[in-house]
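Re: the request from the purification team.
They wanted to know what the chain is likely to look like in 3D before they choose a buffer screen. I agreed to run a prediction and write the result into the notebook, where they can find it.
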Amino acid sequence: MSVPFFSAAAVRAAVPPEVAYAAVREAFVAYARGAWTMQPKLYVPSYPAGDFRAMPALGGGHALLKWVTSFPGNPARGLPTVSGLVLLSSADTGLVEAVFEAGAVTALRTGAAAVLAADVLGRPDAETAAVIGAGVNGRAVAATFLALGRDVLLWDVEPARARNAAKELGAAVSSSQAEALAADLIVTVTPGRTVLLPKDSLQAGQHVSLMGADGPGKAEIAVEEIARVRVFCDDWEQASHGGELAAAVGARALEEDDVTTLGSVLAGQAAGRRSAEEITIFDSTGLAIQDLAIAIAALERADGLDVPALDL
């Protein structure tokens, strides 16, 4: 049996950022309404080097399994932080339909989820947007903002990386981390080893999409800051055990009733931002249903692309 293999380039060619945004939005709604299902990601730790993750999902007539890694030290070796494969199968026959390079799928859905949360939870009159972290996923976030017509500032601990990404994408470079953190809409896409947002750092009306701290021991925001703002997440089970919110839950500063899922807001089941002054944060742990949305979109848009076949 032969199935198409989507390289990173093929994934990006099939699914531009605006298509990824729409697909991920629909996936959040389908998951909130129970039409799509998934289990929390399974971590296979190989610390301190990194970890492996297994992520299954079912929806839209397909089933998915993503086997992906996060090894933060890899860039120093000239290797990607994120690598792996995504398998898409028919929910009717169980047969594999396509294989995808996982890094590109991850970047697209990360960019889509970050900007979607900013759009839904940010102030309607928000003017400025900034992305902190100009790695692969940070670039994907910036590309999504730009594709949807919003200017964005980029900042990175390595200024050259921010400049190169900005030049490639047509974005602007922030003059400082402080300027980036003062934006109306902030997206943090860092390794999660340093807290960027200590207690009382966020100002009235700001929104932050926290995309970097997607595993145990990582944090981009202080527990004390989480406790004083309005909190949203992609999935409570994942976020409370392996995401940004885990430390706040462990410290008993946060309970499930204090947190609203983004999907429930999109599905009209819960309220989003309630005032212009409210501070909102979105904790993203990355969901298999988001990967499923990107994989389906790629498969549906593959006509005309040079996608080689794999013999299984």
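For the purification team: Residues 102-121 form the longest helix (20 residues).
Please add any questions underneath this entry.
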